[in-house]
Structures are given as C-alpha cells and as structure tokens.
Amino acid sequence: MVKTTLNVGRISEGFVLDHIEAGKSMEIYKYLHLDKLDCCVAIIKNARSNKMGKKDIMKIECPIDFMDLDILGFIDHNITVNIVQNEEIVDKKRLTLPKEIRNVIRCKNPRCITSIEQGLDHVFVLTDEEKQIYRCKYCEEKYTDNK
C-alpha cells in the first residue's frame, strides 16, 4: 500500500475550521455563501482523526471580520475556529449554540407570519439547549432538519 499525504498551503489571513463532523463541510460552504465570495477555500473531507474517527477541515482565506460564528455554532457547535493572520494562528475559538439565529433557516409553517410578510426576518430561538431545539420566534414551529 502506498502512503500519500495531502498538503494544503498556508493561508495569510482567514480561518481554519477544524473538528467539523464528517460530511458537513459542504453544508457550511452553502450557509456561509462562500460560492459568492472571491476567496480561496480548501475543503478536506473525511480526514482521519484520533478524536472523531473521521472529520472535515476547511481553510478559508478571507478577511477575518467576515465569519459569522453564530451560523457555525448552529450547524455544529463542536467546530474549532482557528483565526489566522500573517500565516500564524492568532486565536482559537470554541463555538456554542447561539441563543437566536436570524435569516439562516426558514420557517416551514404555512400559517406563520413570515410566509405572508415577505420582508420579515426569519428568527429562531434556542428553546432547549440540551436537545438543541430551535423554534420560530413568531409561531413557535419547531425547526426540523429535513435532509
């Protein structure tokens, strides 16, 4: 068997997202709208991990004020965010579940005011931290991940 390693170059300014649950990196790519930015993104899927078995890793070269940590915390609060400046990690952030998320997910209740009022923000509130349950601020519809 031939052993190979994968080398991804250093980034000068941006983020390295580590400990992403295997297979979730493309979801993060979508939620952060990285396809609309002119920045360099490296995604490593199913990397070996002693701690997790398999994990995803993302390197995102972009201005450091770009990242919305609430979106990342909602997707997977176990992600480690390494902040890079001048090709060096200057800070590590641990994520938590955000108490409120705005315009990340949409309420699926057809009777919700957000279905009628098109300009209204979609706001979900964390109602059960242990079970990671979010509910619509307006109609209290429970968010379910329909994948």
TrEMBL record:
Q: Which residues form the Aspartate carbamoyltransferase regulatory subunit C-terminal domain?
A: 100-146
Q: Where is the Aspartate carbamoyltransferase regulatory subunit N-terminal domain?
A: 6-95
Q: Does the record carry Metal-binding as a key word?
A: yes
What name does UniProt use for this protein? Aspartate carbamoyltransferase regulatory subunit
Q: Which InterPro entries match?
A: Asp_carbamoyltransf_reg_N (IPR020545), Asp_carbamoylTrfase_reg (IPR002801), Asp_carbamoyltrfase_reg_C (IPR020542)
Keyword field contains Transcription regulation: no
* UniProt entry keywords in alphabetical sequence: Metal-binding, Zinc
Signal sequence interval, chain numbering = none
Please report the organism this UniProt entry assigns to the protein.
Answer: Faecalicatena faecalis
